[in-house]
Amino acid sequence: MKFKYKIGSALIGLIIVMVFLFFLVDTKEEEVYQAVAKTMPTHYNGEQFAGSQSCIPCHQNIYKTHINTPHFNTSAIAGEETLKGPFNNPSHKVELIDGVVQMVHEGDAYYQTISSKTSGELLDKSRLDIVFGSGVKGQSYLAFKDDFLIQLQASYFTLTDDFINSPGYPNYRFTRSVTDNCIKCHVTFAKNGDFKGNTNIYERESFIYGVDCERCHGPLQKHVDYRTGNLKQMGEDVVIKIDTLARQLKTDICVQCHSGLRAIQIKGNPFSFVIGERLDKYAKNYNFGRPEAQLDVHGNQYGLLKSSECYKNSSTMTCTTCHDPHQNQRGETKHFNSKCIECHVSPKELHEKSNLNLSDLNNCISCHMPLFPSQTMKVQLGNDTQETSVNIRTHLIGVYIDGILQNQKN
Ligand code: HEC
Ligand code: HEC
Ligand code: HEC
Ligand code: HEC
Ligand code: HEC
Ligand code: HEC
Ligand code: HEC
């Protein structure tokens, strides 16, 4: 008895010493990394993320407009402020061959339920953990099932203010495993269980939601430390000045998410690429031959733009020629018009053949970048045989007559 007691107290003593040592080590670490927010993950290249809130003291105006962009809001923890759609309304349901999907709100949580069509028995109830999409066109939902991340059956379709079977889903109960190849364009960062990004197991604390500052500018804790004077050995600022980059490198920032699914990963995983590097060393598309065939919600704005005369005949055009990456500019026709006129300085002369007046010309994009119906985001309403689709703006700039591109007509 006595002997056992001695071992016990020795053990307790040892534990106390170890705990003490642990705190000693831990506080030392605190000193070194004082400016590092503990919750921010580290990028695969070893650089630490700072989070967009840490940019506020010095880039306040950019931050203020950025948080209103579809980019910033393209993913979030699911909740009252981030979810759209008629939850708790039984008339809004998705009918499948083998079940009925309903979306409900209970307390703080939102759920998707699937019940048997014949017996009414509850077959599945999943909590909505993450929402994808700012809601311009729609929203999809992700859920953690144990440790596995999956996409739920239903999505929200903004155009009809209703729930639909998720784009690409079959007409029966289905769950899609969510890997880096799904989340790569909708979050700033997330650490997968496997370095290639092929599993659907994630470190939950590693998620940085939305397309935030550091997805485009790279992880910038060192920049924050440097500018705040926290970095002991002052060297060069690590931040990359975009206007010093070659055109392709500038464009690659946007191309990583706006050039189709880019599903062939050559190096690292989809989150490995950072600004300043060549994207073609990291990932490429399966070659479908026709970029215009990839016009869709998950379309290839880059491929289309690259095939346009404007892009081919200009040495400076990039995505930011027309888009301010820090602003929500949807529907700002005047702004986009003024961009066309910066290069096409006398529109009247260009339209002598069709005899269009200047007053007819004040919406260049309506004729030269027309809208086309999406092939994936569409739904059949009631008994209507016509499908209702989201419209997508083509980036193949050209002369269209009745939706047909003139210079490619055979
Ligand atoms: C303590 C102040 C401070 C903080 C915090 C800070 N920056 Fe900066 N940032 C600066 C200064 C100063 C410059 C240099 C401006 C210049 O040279 O014109 C700069 C430059 C930049 C540039 C390059 C601009 C260019 O000329 O191309 C980017 C991009 C940038 N910051 C992004 C960020 C992001 C993203 C964050 C948050 C993660 C952040 N900064 C946090 C002060 C700060
Ligand atoms: C990490 C992926 C990612 C990067 C990088 C990215 N985008 Fe996006 N972009 C998205 C996603 C996702 C959406 C859809 C947002 C939503 O509505 O949920 C989007 C939407 C847009 C929209 C439509 C906004 C609207 O009004 O609906 C424009 C324009 C756009 N991006 C331009 C750019 C430009 C320009 C760049 C480069 C400077 C860029 N994007 C970089 C993922 C990205
Ligand atoms: C290669 C990049 C990429 C991948 C991969 C991707 N998306 Fe997207 N997604 C986008 C872009 C870009 C847009 C906006 C396109 C536009 O406005 O034309 C978008 C739009 C959406 C929208 C509509 C957003 C809105 O606010 O209207 C939803 C919902 C969505 N994606 C869900 C998903 C889901 C779920 C997956 C994974 C299965 C996925 N996306 C994979 C790039 C991507
Ligand atoms: C979608 C990608 C994207 C996101 C998100 C983004 N930026 Fe930028 N940022 C760019 C690009 C591209 C440029 C270069 C602009 C140009 O070429 O006109 C730029 C330029 C800048 C500059 C220098 C030029 C200027 O306007 O002062 C700063 C500073 C900056 N960004 C900070 C930020 C901060 C802070 C955030 C988040 C609050 C942020 N950016 C979010 C893409 C992005
Ligand atoms: C950076 C300069 C630049 C910008 C901005 C620009 N373009 Fe162009 N665009 C060109 C050049 C260069 C050509 C080649 C023919 C020429 O020299 O006029 C061209 C060609 C065209 C053509 C003829 C296409 C064909 O297939 O023959 C149309 C139509 C056009 N642009 C419309 C637009 C519209 C609409 C906008 C605004 C959304 C726009 N452009 C913005 C530079 C530009
Ligand atoms: C010549 C001008 C111009 C250039 C260059 C340009 N865009 Fe756009 N983009 C537009 C216009 C105009 C719209 C429609 C805006 C609206 O409807 O409010 C648009 C819309 C978009 C949308 C939303 C599409 C939709 O239908 O909802 C995305 C995404 C986008 N652009 C991405 C890009 C990317 C990525 C690049 C570079 C590869 C790029 N754009 C280059 C003019 C341009
Ligand atoms: C109502 C539709 C419409 C609008 C709006 C419109 N265009 Fe056009 N555009 C055309 C047509 C059709 C042509 C073919 C030439 C013609 O018929 O005169 C054309 C031709 C052009 C061309 C020359 C193409 C070539 O063959 O070289 C350019 C560049 C161009 N437009 C730019 C613009 C710009 C910039 C604006 C806005 C200020 C604009 N367009 C507004 C219909 C339009």
List the helices and strands and how they pair.
Blueprint: H1 2-32, H2 60-66, E1 75-77, E2 93-96, E3 99-106, E4 109-115, E5 122-127, E6 130-132, E7 138-145, E8 148-157, E9 162-165, E10 176-177, H3 180-183, E11 187-192, E12 202-209, H4 213-217, H5 221-228, H6 247-255, E13 264-265, E14 283-284, H7 301-306, H8 309-312, H9 333-343, H10 347-350, H11 364-368, E15 371-380, E16 387-393, E17 400-401, E18 404-405
Antiparallel strand pairs: 1-6, 2-3, 3-4, 4-5, 6-7, 7-8, 8-9, 8-10, 11-12, 13-14, 15-16, 17-18
Pfam families: Cytochrome_C554
Domain Cytochrome c-552/4: 179-218
InterPro entries: Cyt_c-552/4, Multihaem_cyt_sf, Multiheme_Cytochr_ET
Written description of the protein model:
The longest helix has 31 residues, at 2-32. It contains eleven helices and 18 strands. It has 410 residues and is an alpha+beta fold. Among the domains are: 79-180, no CATH class; 309-408, no CATH class. The strands form six sheets. Strands 1, 6, 7, 8, 9 and 10 form a six-stranded antiparallel beta sheet that branches. It has a four-stranded antiparallel beta sheet with strand order 2-3-4-5, with no helix packed on it. It has a two-stranded antiparallel ribbon with strand order 11-12. One heme C binds at residues 309-310, 313-314, 316-317, 321, 336, 339-340, 342-344, 364-365, 368-369, 397-399, 407.
